[in-house]
Amino acid sequence: MNAKSMGSIFLFLMASIIGLILYNAVRITSRQLEPQDSNFPELNNDIFKRLSQSINYKTVSNENFSVIDSSEFLAFHQFLIQSFPNVFNKLEVEVYNTFGLLLYWKGSDSKLPPIVITAHMDVVPAEDSKKWAHNPFSGHDDGTFIWGRGSLDDKGSLMAIFETINLLITDNFRPAADIYFAFGHDEEITGKYGASAIANALKKKNIKADFVLDEGMVVTQGLVPFMKNPVALIGTSEKGFMNVRLSVEADGGHASTPANENAVSLLAAAVDKLNRNPLPKRFCKPVEDFIIYLSPELPFFPKLIFANKWLFKPIILSVYEKSASGNALVRTTAAPTLLMAGVKDNVIPDKASVLYNIRLLPGDEPDDIIQHIKKTLNDDRFRIEVDHEHLQHPSPVSEINTPGFIKIHQSIKNVFPDATVCPTLMLGASDSRHYSIISENIYRFAPYIVTDESIDSIHGVNERISRKNYEQMISFYYTLIRQC
Ligand SMILES: [Zn+2]
Q1: 8 A C-beta contact, residue 153 and residue 463
Q2: Are residues 67 and 163 in the same domain?
Q3: How far is the C-alpha of 367 from the C-alpha of 280, rounded, in Å?
Q4: Which residue has the higher pLDDT, 423 or 10?
Q5: What angle do CA 461, 463, 469 make, to 5 degrees?
Q6: Alpha-carbon span 450 to 157, nearest angstrom
Q7: How many angstroms separate the CA atoms of 131 and 457, rounded?
Q8: Do 377 and 264 belong together in one domain?
Q9: Is residue 405 a contact partner of residue 441, using CB atoms and an 8 Å limit?
Q10: Which residues in 261-350 belong to E strands, given as ranges?
Q11: Is 338 part of a structural domain of the chain?
Q12: 152 C-alpha vs ligand 1 centroid, how far in Å?
């Protein structure tokens, strides 16, 4: 073959590949539903007043559960009963471990599988109260925002759900399916006595829920690269959680005559080695689904890349791994958090240890991670211990072609018509994992808007929700429950 015909073949191949890339980008079709229901409730200023009041109750769940202020939780219950007498009259109420509430709304069609909608009543402490523009438990309403701990996470959702049930009762609405509304009181500290107890009770009642909606992901604004419009994320799985202690022993001695190698130097080298050899990056199912939903909505050039994952996968993965949050989406991460060694300034410690907080991607098993650590270190002197008590496997991945996902997607589009809806992987942990014993379809979404500016206010300083967004939250639950 001469050079000329080789050149022609090369040109032909290139043109074919470019053609295929363009074809793939044009061919992908949008997964977004069209807004349908614009029948939103009439809302008045009382909703803001009640949200402000709900923030006044310091329903703080501390790490040490025995020190929670039970009077705040019980007063909060009374506040709910007084604010929503119709809800407490119409729905059956059960109390779990003194503070957790389960409300049951009987549907009209007993053949339909029930639905579970949840939110949590506890909040994290607000220790930096001096840094807040308004006292974190004041519920200050400046006419645009309602300020305070829990306004987003998660009293906003909880109060919006109560307002919605109240409005629907006034409308004489009755759901077709049974609906359970579950309100845990210790989400911020594992959910063991709230959501877990409620989920176990539902299991005992033989409840197999069609879907469970819990908080988790949100409507993001300006946080998804290339997307000017909001992107509403629905978590279809959450990463696992594992603490692993890595320790090593070596000769100690006096610090005036140090040997070249000691427990601290060995441990430091190991930490460095593990840092340079992270777990492999890959797309798990929820992130694959995210790309499928997002790609058609992207501007042309990023769309070219994302629509041709078969070719550009390595590029996409390396873009992801560059940012901390992107990296956490494409691999199991291992963060060294607690280092321990030494008792005195002039004594070389004979033992050093580091605690790794590991977040597992769906599909990764704890044993895979231990094997990776062992193989990377390749040194028998290191001891590896897993904290089995706090180990949480990654949650099962919920499907996206289910009636539950479609109802949530439709409700988001009804209220936020210009938002792009995408399933995704949730990086943190929520109460939702406890409900996997009663449903395969668990969706993590709360209808509040998070921007680059407000993201740190959740568990941080100056948490607040706009009045407009709070109205949208109520409209979301309203349009969702009307489909149930
Ligand atoms: Zn929360």
Answers
A1: yes
A2: yes
A3: 15
A4: 423
A5: 160
A6: 14
A7: 12
A8: yes
A9: yes
A10: 333-341, 347-348
A11: yes
A12: 8
Please tell me whether the overall predicted TM-score, pTM, comes out greater than 0.85 for this model: yes
pLDDT, tens digit, 9 for 90 and up, residues 374-386:
999 999 999 999 9
216 CA → ligand 1 middle, Å:
7
- Tens digit of pLDDT for each residue in 179-220? 999 999 999 888 989 999 999 999 999 999 999 999 999 999
Q: Are 360 and 394 in contact (CB under 8 A)?
A: yes
Q: Classify 481 as helix, strand or coil.
A: helix
One domain for residues 322 and 340? yes
- pLDDT, tens digit (0-9, with 9 covering 90-100), for 412-462: 999 999 999 999 999 988 889 999 999 999 999 999 999 998 898 999 999
How many Cβ atoms are within 10 Å of 150's Cβ, its own excluded? 30
* Distance separating alpha carbons of residues 212 and 68, to the nearest angstrom: 28
List, by residue number, the catalytic residues.
122, 187
Q: Cα of 438 to ligand 1 centre, how many Å?
A: 20
Dihedral, CA of residue 127, residue 129, residue 133 and residue 139, to nearest 10: 90
Do the domain assignments include residue 6?
no
Reported as a single tens digit per residue, the pLDDT across 296-351 is: 999 999 999 998 988 899 999 998 999 999 999 999 999 999 999 999 999 999 99
Query: Which of 414, 408, 407 shows the shortest CA–CA distance to 35?
Result: 414
Give whole-number Cα distances, 165 to 53, 179, 331, 445, in Å: 18, 11, 40, 18
* CA 154 to centroid of ligand 1, rounded, Å: 5
Q: Say yes or no: 50 and 185 in one domain.
A: yes
pLDDT, tens only, 464-478: 999 999 999 999 999
Say how many C-beta atoms besides its own lie within 10 A of residue 205's C-beta.
Answer: 11
Distance in Å, CA 109 to ligand 1 centroid? 32
Q: How far apart are CA 297 and CA 313, in angstroms?
A: 19
Tokens at 262, concatenated: 């000691």
Residues in the chain: 484
Q: How far is the CA of 470 from the centre of ligand 1 (A)?
A: 16
